[in-house]
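To close the section, here is one more complete example, presented without commentary so you can practise reading it yourself. The ligand is adenosine-5'-diphosphate.
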Amino acid sequence: MSEVEYEAVIGLEIHVQLSTQTKMFCGCGLSFGEPPNTRTCPVCLGLPGALPVANEMAVHYGLMIGLALGCELAPRSIFHRKNYFYPDLPKGYQISQYDEPLCKGGRLGEVRIHRVHLEEDAAKLTHVGASGRIHGSDASIVDFNRGGTPLAEIVTEPDIRSAEAAADWLRLLRVTLRRLGVSDVNMEEGSLRCDANISLRPAGSEQLGVKTELKNMNSFRFIERGIKAELARQEKILRAGERVIQETLHFDPNSGRITSLRSKEQAHDYRYFPEPDLLPIAISQQMLDRAREAMPELPAAMATRLEQEHGLSAESAELLAFKDELGDYFEAAVREPVDPQAPPQALANWLITDLTGRLGEGQAPLQSRVEPGALAALVGLVAAKRISVGAGRSVLDKLVAEGGDPVAIVEAEGLGAMSDGDELAGIVAAAIAANADAAERVKAGNAKAVGPIVGYVMRETKGRADGGEVNRLIAQQLGA
Ligand code: ADP
Ligand code: MG
Ligand code: ZN
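Output:
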């Protein structure tokens, strides 16, 4: 009997810290690493009698997010109290939105959006010491600076079918939010946090399986690894004929282990009720107009424009527009007046493959030592065959390490393409003589045997020779 194939079903819940001036319901400034508990007031400390007032800018940002995700914007939405106790929540409840959120429905790429709502962040708990011990006793310390920071929570439908697709989609969401300018979207610093809801079902089935929720993963790599680990865990359970238990889980990226945080809470556990201290959010025409006017060009539109304006392939245009600030870098580089000019598609290729490949994960090209103008100049030199592709790559190595001007580097290192055809022909002849075996095989029709001969020429010329020219000369001299 053949084994059942399982299909992954994943839905994401994303918390985005909004970069407003002040907190969600009070006038305290947002915190950027100030000393603990210096950005607080009676409202965000939850003192009795203090009254919240909703932050207009947070509502504005929420509407922009809703517009970017194609949501239906609710003319009227309300806040609810979500009741639970935790030391990072001094009121004993979080002010959130429940059954009347700011935005409903929508879509980004292939993934449907379920809803977007506004809420406040909790304070920050730090468990001190290797074993959570301080002064000989267990301790957690709390910093209320973060408490009350505005959050937009974005909830997707369970439309994602693999761990890689989850990470890719989250990248698209992040670049979209960055373009909107509504958040720092910095995962390490917690301004973008993602929970993944995960289940398996027999391939082809329409029914959803029992899901688990992986909490608070703070990098794309961990999200991908965490989801993969959880899918593997669930598959093992199902293949053993057992049942997945609905629970909230933690993925430890160091050990790769998944542990249970708590059994799944239900909405009724929170005793949601409408927040009596806040008015409903009523969206005026003026607020809608203001949100529409503030909308920048979004990644999908940027991809189409790059394709049309610069004649890029659809694939390259999408890569540039959807990945971090690659599109910005490309646009800066393509505008540079360099001579010889860099063909846009070649520039895109060098940026996507060569430059990005040389930078570490998480380092954006705009933050690297390679100025957009320098990359454009380098690609121009290669395209005009003033330097070989190999030499171009060495120049790029140098630019990544030290920055600088490609023309100066080419001169200083003598990397200019060999202009003297006779000199190159001589080196090819020497290469053939030094690799007589290979030459015989090439003559006998084995084209692949040419490798050692080309290698010899490239070593002798330090990569300055043009690859096409070398192959032409070898074929000519061997009469092949
Ligand atoms: P909960 O009440 O547990 O928060 P929701 O129905 O509100 O669950 O959904 C929360 C998230 O979980 C959404 O992103 C949704 O798409 C996703 N989700 C719901 N059911 C499943 C499932 N069976 N498998 C995977 N994800 C799911
Ligand atoms: Mg949930
Ligand atoms: Zn405050």
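Once you have examined the tokens, check your reading against these statements. Residues 23, 26, 28, 40-41, 43-44, 148 surround zinc ion (ligand 3) (CB under 6 Å). The longest strand covers residues 6-17.
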